[in-house]
Design brief:
mainly beta, single chain, nine-stranded parallel beta sheet, 41 strands, globular
Amino acid sequence: MAITLLTGLAAGAQGIRVNYKGAKPAISDFAAAYLSQEDDEEMIKGIREDWECHQQGKALSNGAAFTVDVKNGFIRYDKRYTATTYSYTEMCFWNCKDNVHKLLAVNRGHIEQGKPATAPFTGLKFYTYDSGTKRMVQTFSSDLGARIDVRPEVTYALPQAGKDIMATIHAPQGEVQILMKWNGRTFDQEQPGRPAGNVQTSAPTGSFGETVRYKDDDYIRVSTAEQFLNALGSNRNVLVAKDTEIDLTPVLNDESRFRTRYKMWMPDASNGIGDGREAVVSEEVFDGRQLTLVNMKQLVIEGEQNARLVVEPRYAFCLNFVDCRQCTVSNLTIGHTEGGYCEGGVIGVKRGWRNVVTDCDLYGCGTYGLDLEGTNSFSLYSSNIHDCTYGIMQLRDCEAVHSTHCEFFNNGEFTLIESHGCTGTVFEDCRFFSNWGDAPLFGFDRAFILLGCAVYHPTENLGTMNLCEQPSQSQPNTFNPNPTDPNIAGREIGPDGHHANTRGE
């Protein structure tokens, strides 16, 4: 069985140790391991304290209750605040077909006034347990076939008996349910594709005043810069049409289009917006304007085949996110019409939580492909970063930045991956090649992790390898001092899975 493993922030380099007595761990052992983390998310401290009381036969905190079904491998914790407001955490596990691994699911939810509500601690997480190491590490839902790729509120119910997870999409038109069936390796979803009618029911309105069209009542489909900017907002799925290149610069330069409460013309949006409202901002940079999205939640920006976003100012980010949560950029080619220096990467993220870039091609910027500051749980998946004039990425004061199955090539000329004050940084199944050979590859001041990566870079310029942890014997890293080794073959990574230009030619 091949399951992609990602070390979680709280798990540390070696994963979470599962202690148990007897021949194999039980659900109580997995619960104790999960709660042993130094996890700063809400609730976990309270659950841990109540779990210890439960184990010792002591009284729990007010409104707390446990359901523990050892036989079926299921635990549920409820914490009720009022008659209609409560939170819950469920745990269960499955055996894998290889008889070596087990899969633990942790489902956390919050009910406000009787209705599901999004909170920082809600959602479904998975951990893969290895009976050989007796440790478990976090695994992406998408690698297990358990990703529900829609933006309205989704709640889950773990099985107390049986093997299937029920996901419920709470849409304005009514609830849609998807059954995820465990096959021993991954989950098979009973309802194929995205359910129709689950996002917007009418076109968004705003200063642009242009009607947008939908694709199967699921996405807001756009083909112009005006449509694109008008469609942006929380809980929306924006689809850039096939064979479309959207140049954002002409619209961003038109101040008359940014005179509403939610579309703003600002010299600097880096400090966010004080009242917490979401906004589409045209923000000033050295040689023009850049698009900055503020306080967005659960926004998806995705492209059909050969869809592109570009900007003209060399010192602007193509997409910049400030205080955004659970936003996704997918299947797009994004870059500058001309590279510059000093400022302006491809994608910038400041603060925020659980934002994702997947299946993208990021190229040709003034600094770095990714510039992340103060953000938590950021994921870069199956994407390319190439032809950036400073380096690959810059990280500052971030937690749990994971890059999986990515290609980093033709970048220069300073330290290629610069990281200050970051914890939980992981690169898995990534390749580094054809980059500026005289530049240090890694510039970290804290520990980082490489899992199954291929590094083609001069040995003397690898940088801070003394802080690199390589914990997995099953996912060894390889090192080659020749950045342009002729045996480097393309991988189908990036938009539509067809980007195989390994040298930027």
